[in-house]
Write a structure and sequence with these properties.
The chain is mainly alpha-helical. Among the domains are: 97 residues, Arc Repressor Mutant, subunit A (Orthogonal Bundle); 83 residues, Serine Threonine Protein Phosphatase 5, Tetratricopeptide repeat. 59% of the residues lie in helices and 7% in strands. It contains 11 helices and 6 strands. The strands form 2 sheets. It has a 3-stranded antiparallel sheet, with helices on one face. A 3-stranded antiparallel sheet has the order 4-6-5. A hairpin with a 5-residue loop joins β1 and β2. α5 runs antiparallel to α6 and α9 packs parallel to α11. It holds the Pfam family Trans_reg_C.
């Protein structure tokens, strides 16, 4: 079964969609997909669907939702005598498990490729880091589970993968800066700073890219915009690290012009 959660929810078995139309079964499928090959307890599924207001009929209703999902899977498996729906959506002691093959859930693939990119970055192989992290980021087709109503459990899962996405993006941009691609990434960074006006790391990367592109005054403008936003919104000054970067741009500190590593 191929499942995508990094954007609208899709799940296909033998090319046939098994995504239900009703909201609560979609929540269940999403949570099982994010936790694929691991048991999701009945209590966790109930918390996701009903929060703190769990009805007395919850156990029976949950079993009905699981049955609906299995019927969708069974229809997609039609003609395959070697597998049944209960072998895909498995009942385990205290919960349920969605069994998938490696590489079939995009969120899991994103985690795997991002880990490889992070390792390359830490090893100083910025070419590989940029390539791998860029490949991982291309798996996203919008906000995670954008068309699924999320409860308290899925909300945390979505937050986790979105934070991982931001971290991968920051690391990929850092690799590009170390590769001397400052001019190419300025437009992307302008958009990111506009979308995240209080994100200090994106601002720092934009300031660095602009300075290296010969636009120190624009780098100073970016700092001032961030400072005004932080003061107005939170009553805070930029961090010491960003203030030091501001001073380095003002003084044209040659340390900002990092030597590009040799390719090879």
């Amino acid at each position: 079964m191929e499942i995508n959660v990094l954007g609208p929810l899709t799940a296909r078995e033998n090319g046939v969609s098994v995504v239900p139309t009703a909201a609560k079964p979609r929540q269940i499928l999403s949570l099982l997909a994010l936790q694929a090959d691991r048991v999701v307890t009945v209590a966790t599924l109930m918390e996701e669907i009903w929060g703190e207001d769990i009805p007395r009929s919850a156990a029976t209703t949950l079993q009905t939702y699981i049955l609906q999902l299995r019927r969708k899977i069974a229809a997609a498996l039609d003609g395959d005598p070697s597998r049944q729906a209960k072998d895909v959506l498995v009942t385990q002691h205290g919960g349920y498990l969605l069994q998938v093959q490696p590489g079939q859930v995009d969120a899991h693939e994103f985690t795997r490729v991002t880990a490889s990119g992070r390792a390359a970055h830490e090893a100083g192989d910025y070419h590989a880091a940029s390539e791998l992290l860029g490949q991982a980021l291309k798996m996203w087709r919008g906000n995670a589970l954008v068309d699924v109503r999320v409860g308290t459990v899925l909300e945390l899962e979505v937050l986790r993968v979105e934070e991982d996405r931001m971290a991968a993006l920051e690391r990929r941009i850092d690799a590009d800066l170390k590769l001397g691609r400052h001019t190419e990434i300025v437009p992307e960074l302008r958009v990111l700073v506009a979308r995240h006006p209080m994100h200090e790391n994106f601002c720092a990367q934009l300031m660095t890219a602009l300075h290296r592109s010969g636009s120190a005054w624009r780098a100073l403008e970016a700092y001032q915009r961030l400072r005004v936003t932080l003061v107005d919104e939170l009553g805070l000054e930029p961090s010491a690290r960003l203030q030091q970067l501001h001073q380095a741009v003002l003084s044209a500190d040659p340390a900002l012009d990092v030597q590009v590593p040799a390719s090879g």
